[in-house]
Sequence to fold (555 residues):
Amino acid sequence: MLSSWTDDDEVPKGEYKFVYPAYFGNRIQQAEDNPATNAGVYLGRRLFYEARLSANNSLSCGSCHMQEKAFTDGQKLSRGVDGTFSDRNAMALVNLLWARKLFWDGRSASLEGQASVPMINPHEMGQSLSASAKKLQETSYYPQLFKQVYGDEQVTGKRIVMALAQFERTLISANSRYDRYLESVENVENVKNIENSKRIDKIKSIERVNNGDNVDKIIKNANLSAEEMRGMLLFNTAPDPEKGIRGANCAHCHGGPKNYLELFHNNGLDLRSKDAGIALLTGQKTDHGRFKVPTLRNIELTAPYMHDGRFNTLEEVIEHYSEHMEQPESLSAFLQHESNIKGGTSLKLRSNEKKELIAFLKTLTDSTFIADPRFSNPFLTAKTSTK
Amino acid sequence: MRKYLFIALIGLFQMAVSPDAASAQALTEPGVKITGEVTAAQTIHAADLKQFKQVTVIRKDRDGKDHTYSGVKLFDLLLKAGVTLGKDLRGENLTKFALIEASDGYQVIFTLAELDSEFTDRAIILADRVDNQLLPVADGPFRIIVQDEKKPARCIKQVTAIKIAFAK
Fold:
């Protein structure tokens, strides 16, 4: 018989340990009834790439959230099972362990609650949770896997979303050149001077979070170029033309070590946004056209940009903030009169400054994240059939 | 009445909003929701502030100039919502805090003792006016003003919610 499931030992056991840098902080979000386990994450990864969760077995989460694009799809809007396009641009799935409000308008409060939305939406995967559960129950692969995670072979919608959420929480990106910078060159160099017995441990631990690179290589990579450093300074500085201070002040909304502050703002894309954003939920005029400020981690890989995917390149994004900002009534206070020229209504950066900013943004790219085998499609390499 | 109907509707459809509804967008009156460890959860609207004692606080804003903010003490608002302040602010209640949230998701906290007039004379108010004008749109309609605090970071703008909770 062609049964696929033979090797019990393949599924790892025990509690899943999240590994992330201390500067990310511990305000992590896990549902109390759904702590991550190694087996749950193993199942969640398979479900994430499982096309049976869609009406015509054609789409999985991974179709719109592709690893090589930091879990975006490279499309302005995404095509669902019924051939229609989504209303908004597919978001990057990065460092969701810290996210409290999901979607462009923050309308979902947990990954468990979020996961069923694309599954049942007729314009996305288009299949009820119970239909999905039934399909998986009929395979010989999944019931045994569910048993290893939940204790019995029952496949339910709730168990599907729980495992998906567990896997999504593991999508941590903290290995960019900017991270090397944050850990700071000195920090790494200092270990060369500490006492021998402790030194080995320290070096090992640094190498471990750096995916096994050796310390010398890490130090070399930690250095940002002069152009990138100037870009970082602009990113973090508020412009003040009266005092002759040049700046782009991106950090006000995109700052902090995770480049994600979970804020919702109108960044002046339109005088009157076609999509009302969070105003649809709050009914407040001042919330019109306000959207989640997305993470800038891996931003080089996640074009096109903005909630409607209107910009194809980072150059176009910078042109927006520098030259073309509209002044809607609900424009964020952080962007009002924020300019390098007196009385300006957009940043008015010089062309070298635009290049510097982009150079800095590219230091946020984590090439190990998009190649990490723990996050890849297991069915492309799997020896076992899932029939 | 419309307002409540609208809120009920968003509750129902929250998971399935479509931006197409943008044109049909109804408007609700802005308010500050007080929830958590309270005996009387409520939403405060502009008109409700009138029933409390009016207080003014003068402090500098980011422009470096002094401004006169007026509104009501958070202490008075929270007492009315049944928060353990005054004679009840002792024992484990001293581990409670107020989490203030703004419409853009920004959050700050104050411990209850910081807000209690029996602990401190420093006023922390929910302001609705500055220099006798309604607050500008990007700051209001409600803003926390902390008397004498050196940095303005906790003078949180566009306040929408106050949640009282125990430190775990």
